[in-house]
From TrEMBL:
<feature type="transmembrane region" description="Helical">
    <location>
        <begin position="404"/>
        <end position="428"/>
    </location>
</feature>
<feature type="transmembrane region" description="Helical">
    <location>
        <begin position="329"/>
        <end position="349"/>
    </location>
</feature>
<dbReference type="Pfam" id="PF01061">
    <property type="entry name" value="ABC2_membrane"/>
</dbReference>
<dbReference type="InterPro" id="IPR017871">
    <property type="entry name" value="ABC_transporter-like_CS"/>
</dbReference>
<dbReference type="InterPro" id="IPR003593">
    <property type="entry name" value="AAA+_ATPase"/>
</dbReference>
<keyword id="KW-0813">Transport</keyword>
<dbReference type="InterPro" id="IPR013525">
    <property type="entry name" value="ABC2_TM"/>
</dbReference>
<feature type="transmembrane region" description="Helical">
    <location>
        <begin position="543"/>
        <end position="564"/>
    </location>
</feature>
<dbReference type="InterPro" id="IPR027417">
    <property type="entry name" value="P-loop_NTPase"/>
</dbReference>
<dbReference type="InterPro" id="IPR050352">
    <property type="entry name" value="ABCG_transporters"/>
</dbReference>
<feature type="domain" description="ABC transporter">
    <location>
        <begin position="24"/>
        <end position="253"/>
    </location>
</feature>
<dbReference type="GO" id="GO:0016020">
    <property type="term" value="C:membrane"/>
</dbReference>
<dbReference type="InterPro" id="IPR003439">
    <property type="entry name" value="ABC_transporter-like_ATP-bd"/>
</dbReference>
<keyword id="KW-0812">Transmembrane</keyword>
<dbReference type="GO" id="GO:0140359">
    <property type="term" value="F:ABC-type transporter activity"/>
</dbReference>
<feature type="transmembrane region" description="Helical">
    <location>
        <begin position="369"/>
        <end position="392"/>
    </location>
</feature>
<feature type="transmembrane region" description="Helical">
    <location>
        <begin position="440"/>
        <end position="463"/>
    </location>
</feature>
Length: 569
């Protein structure tokens, strides 16, 4: 195997007694994106007990390197593998490597302790006692015990960084990668955080982190220097870096990281014997892994497994409810918007609008707006669920959270709420004489129709939310999703007078079938003239309407899941 030439200096030996922990071996990594090489033949190792800093100019590929080591970036060539100290492949790669991104990817409204308990439930198998013990341990290790009851948004910058690290440490990874953990911190807080990383390494974890701050290197065993183009020009002890790189001090490093310097340092003639020896060690350990990144997942010791999908569903649903209940504005909108719509219905429709002899157009409109209300509630409830959590979704997908559990948790929380709200709306309208007296079977059937329609719209909202990148885009998508539902429902323009293309589009609108079913429930067809284009409203059976709505929901749910998986990667 050919290794890229580079300058390497022996680093201090890792902490002892790490034979049961895997070694991360990366060989000749090449990452190409958009025709540009982001990494160019990088070869290195990360052992338990080591603290390694990755430095380089902006755009040199530091974050790309961490993503490649974590198995989150497609490699054009090269390989990443986990092996044990005796050279045997690690049989439990699931979760051996934890990755802490640069951004603080935590729900800001939740207290830190609850955030960690939810994270433990998603990452750890073994029950609540195991989860509580893991949370208590990481809080103690990272000196956050007294901040457990504080909302994440109220933590200081350094505390939020440590909180992000705590999430990954819950599952006790052997190796942990951190992207710019000291970015944005004052010097004292940055020193404290690096000291924490040093302590974690001294207790057996392999730690690698990217940084621009040269002061961060003092506590490190090794420094890895990347030059523009993602070429590795130095891998060794920090104290010898300046000499080997031909600079007076490390403060001059960034000025000298030019393409010309890179070419000189990667010339085969400048390769030190130490680098050749390191290559021999890698070969001797038999690390010719499959040319694919290690399996994605959370970090765990060898005997651990990730929780079941059902357990993840329960935790995610509990967390989603926790977030809603702690955000008064969100809770107010969720509960207040149906109240406002009901009030508008009461003002809009006169009592007895659906009684025999009532105006036919009023009956048609009331049936339609009932259907649209359920559709609108479901759509708006789903529209902000994913786009506001994409960074968290990606991190949890990488840590082994199942996409289907994430999607199902949104439905498990919101679908019952939608059904209750639709039922309350029908009851209030009946009490205020905006709906006629109906038998129990008809009331139950109409509630079921509105509930199914709301859940179908919820799936549409989740699909749209997973398809956009921001809340602003979701807001722009709302009218584009509502407008076709209004135009092609068959209420504003009856289906029989539509063009053939319009009728085909109407057939794909769930709101059209909910409108026709509700018109059947309310007997709208009896109120219109026999030659009216609305005369055939509700001619099909309830079973037909429910089947069409359910089939539409299945298609939208599957599409939402596929889009969710795409966004999570």
């Amino acid at each position: 195997m050919t290794f890229t030439s580079q300058t390497t200096v022996p680093a201090p030996a890792p902490a002892a007694d790490q034979t049961d922990r895997p070694l991360l071996v990366a060989e000749s990594l090449v990452v190409v994106r958009g025709g540009h090489r982001l990494l160019d033949g990088v070869t290195l190792t990360l052992a338990p007990g080591e603290l390694v800093a990755v430095v380089g100019a902006s755009g040199a590929g530091k974050s790309t390197l961490l993503a490649a080591l974590a198995g989150l970036t497609r490699l054009a060539s090269g390989s990443v593998a986990l092996v044990r100290a005796d050279g045997s492949p690690n049989r439990s790669p699931y979760g051996a490597v934890g990755l802490v991104p640069q951004d603080d990817i935590l729900h800001p409204d939740l207290p830190l302790g609850r955030t960690l308990r939810h994270a433990a439930g998603l990452r750890l198998a073994g029950g609540r006692d195991v989860e509580r013990a893991a949370v208590a341990e990481v809080l103690r290790v990272l000196d956050l015990t007294d901040r457990a009851g504080v909302p994440v948004a109220s933590l200081s910058g350094g505390q939020r960084k440590r909180a992000s690290i705590a999430v990954e440490l819950l599952a006790r990874p052997s190796l942990c990668l951190l992207d710019e953990p000291t970015s944005g911190l004052d010097p004292a807080t940055a020193r404290s955080l690096v000291a924490t990383l040093r302590d974690l390494a001294d207790h057996g974890a392999g730690i690698a982190f990217t940084t621009h701050a040269l002061n961060d290197l003092e506590a490190c065993d090794r420094v890895v220097v990347l030059a523009p183009g993602g070429r590795l020009v130095y891998d060794g002890a920090p104290g010898l870096a300046a000499t080997r790189l031909g600079v007076d001090s490390l403060t001059d490093l960034y000025d000298r990281l030019t393409d010309r310097l890179t070419d000189r340092l990667t010339d085969p003639a400048t390769v030190s014997p130490d680098r050749s020896a390191a290559a021999s060690v890698i070969r001797a350990e038999g690390t010719r892994p499959p040319r694919r990144p290690p399996a994605r997942g959370t970090a765990r010791d060898a005997g651990r497994q990730r929780p079941s999908g059902l357990r993840q569903l329960v935790v995610l649903t509990h967390r989603a409810a926790d977030i809603v209940l702690r955000n008064r504005l969100t809770l107010g909108i969720l509960l207040g918007s149906p109240v406002a719509v009901i009030a508008m219905f009461v003002v809009l429709f006169q009592p007895g609008a659906l009684d025999p002899g009532g105006h036919p157009s009023g009956a048609v409109m009331e049936a339609y707006w009932l259907a649209f209300a359920g559709f609108f509630f479901g759509l708006t409830y789903g529209l902000l669920q994913v786009c506001t959590e994409v960074p968290i979704l990606r991190r949890e997908h990488q840590s082994g959270v199942r996409d289907v559990a994430y999607l199902a948790s949104k439905v498990a929380l919101l679908a019952p709420l939608l059904i209750v709200l639709d039922t309350v709306m029908l009851v209030v309208l009946r009490v205020l004489d905006r709906l006629p007296a109906l038998d129990l079977h008809t009331w139950v059937s109409m509630s079921l129709t509105m509930g199914i329609n709301a859940v179908v719209a919820l799936f549409l909202g989740l699909l749209a939310s997973a398809s956009v990148s921001s809340v602003a885009q979701a807001a722009l998508a709302l009218p584009m999703l509502c407008f076709p539902a209004v135009l092609f429902s068959g209420a504003m323009v009856p289906v029989p007078v539509m063009t053939s293309t319009g009728a085909a589009m109407a057939a794909a609108m769930p709101d059209r079938w909910a409108f026709e079913a509700i018109a059947r429930h309310l007997g709208v067809g009896r109120l219109v003239a026999a030659d009216s284009p609305y005369a055939d409203l509700g001619h099909a059976s309830y079973g037909f309407y429910w089947t069409v709505l359910a089939a539409t929901g299945v298609v939208l749910a599957a599409s939402a899941l596929l889009m969710l998986r795409r966004r999570a990667r």
